[in-house]
Amino acid sequence: MRNGRISDNTIRRLPAYLRALEELQAVGTERITSSQLGRLLGYTASQVRLDLNCFGGFGTQGYGYNVAELRASIRRILGADEARPAILVGAGRIGRALLDNFDFADCGVHVTAAFDTDLNLTDMYYQGVWIYDLSDMERYVKEHPVEIAVLCVPEDAAQRMANYLVGLGVRAIWNFANDDLDIPKPDVVLEDIKFSDSLLELGYRLAAKSGAVSAPRPAPVR
Amino acid sequence: MRNGRISDNTIRRLPAYLRALEELQAVGTERITSSQLGRLLGYTASQVRLDLNCFGGFGTQGYGYNVAELRASIRRILGADEARPAILVGAGRIGRALLDNFDFADCGVHVTAAFDTDLNLTDMYYQGVWIYDLSDMERYVKEHPVEIAVLCVPEDAAQRMANYLVGLGVRAIWNFANDDLDIPKPDVVLEDIKFSDSLLELGYRLAAKSGAVSAPRPAPVR
DNA sequence: TAGATTGTTAATCGATTAACAATC
DNA sequence: TAGATTGTTAATCGATTAACAATC
Can you tell me the mean pLDDT for A21-25? Predict the structure, then answer.
């Protein structure tokens, strides 16, 4: 178990390992080797072992890894079995779509309240979550443990709201606004969902496949 | 203009450059240097110049880059000014939230139709987009130019639907299902929005900040 | 014990940063 | 022309892959 600084790339691969392991466990697979797991995800066996060994020696020589055990370990590392208290800030379409469809609990997060300014949305339950008026947020956060803010407000309100939330002491922001947020406190965790970036990248790759933009025409063969 | 293979990292930074440039232009900035642009985004000046030079010499020595020009160039590279025809597959909450809130046009994409199996959703317009029954999709795709499928179906239907879409000849899939899709044709572009991965990563970083998981206890001082 | 596969170190590769000559 | 900043090459750094000794 080497414990230097763990690279961002390694961290980003952890959820993929977890997903693969959950599927393996679902179909009853008991053990798996680093090379099998690698093949499943498109990584080399070396990389799998190196990644996992950042967090501990989960394997057994000559055997491989126990699926259930490794899955449990990775869930623990990712905090997937926690129930971190979170609030939804902005209960518009995106916010409510998350409440409808997204399994927060499976990621170790528990949404305890939502906030909005739209009187058509406030003062009601939505998917079991009470939607408060935004003006109640400050009091709510002071009276309840809130670790995470799920930020689903329009782009032009995002930075302002982020500053406000950081001031209130939330420890992490899951941001859905298409905006590069500037987080004043360095120990507040920011994680973005960037729809635009993703779709633009798709557009680029599409153009690149057509050979248009940057795929240089093959050199003329003579 | 060096034109080796352009790295994924470079491509992933393009939308960030674009976002910064749009903001600069919005506030009337005319020119910018690589080091200013870098400071804005947290990159080094070298990196900015190297990234941009993958696509062309957009700058002028002694001056820097013209904001409007560079913005236009990057939009072109990303295909943001196109209107690539796309269909929405699955018009549930997530799908409709996208139609409500997301600016497809600004990413060079035009959603021409949506498909679902839910009779409460089909045969109606939603945000100007007609929702067809899924059984009409095959005919629709054959009769209309469709480049991109925005995949918003439940996780357990995603792989099946992806195979079907690839068979119908779509050239790219923007996937919102939490599933590692296996795309049979190598030239079909796949781009994922991974909500779970993102929130799990947030959870990890939160735990890491608390010094719990992987921050090794400081060695005992004697 | 022999075979297999890990944990871990060494070699390679690629990406980022630094430096500088070209040039506006 | 002098000053500034690019485009581009060289140096550095980090991440991935390969190799192998440890060990189940």
Answer: 97
B46/B31 Cα distance (integer angstroms): 18
B42–chain A nearest CA distance, Å: 11
Tell me the three state secondary structure of residue B14: helix
Task: Dump pLDDT digits (tens) for A55-113.
Answer: 989 999 999 999 999 999 999 999 999 999 999 999 998 999 999 999 999 999 999 99
CB of B125 lies under 7 Å from some atom of strand C: no
Helices (H), B42-134: 45-53, 67-78, 93-101
User: Distance between the two ends of chain B, CA-based, in angstroms?
Assistant: 57
For strand D, is any atom closer than 7 Å to the CB of B117?
no
* 8-state DSSP, A66: E
Is nucleic acid strand C under 7 Å from B63's C-beta?
A: yes
Assessment of whether the complete model's pTM goes beyond 0.90:
yes
Distance B70 CA to C18 C1' (A): 25
The secondary structure of chain B, three-state, reads: CCCCCCCHHHHHHHHHHHHHHHHHHHCCCCEECHHHHHHHHCCCHHHHHHHHHCCCCCEECCCEEEHHHHHHHHHHHHCCCCCEEEEEECCCHHHHHHHHHCCCHHHCEEEEEEEECCCCCCCEEECCEEEEEHHHHHHHHHHCCCCEEEECCCHHHHHHHHHHHHHHCCCEEEECCCCCCCCCCCCCEEEECCHHHHHHHHHHHHHHHCCCCCCCCCCCCC
pLDDT at residue A19, rounded to an integer: 97
Residue A191 phi/psi, 5-degree rounding, is -135, 125
Q: Looking at A70-201, which runs of residues are DSSP E strands?
A: 84-89, 109-116, 124-126, 129-133, 148-151, 172-175, 189-192
Structure confidence by residue, pLDDT tens digits, B9-19 = 999 999 999 99
- Judge whether residue B216 has pLDDT over 50: no
Between residues B2 and A154, which one has the greater pLDDT? A154
SS3 A113: strand
**Contact indicator for B200, A75 with CB cutoff of 8 Å:** no
Point out the nucleotide closest to B12 (alpha carbon to C1′): C15
β-strands A189-192, A172-175: how paired?
A: parallel
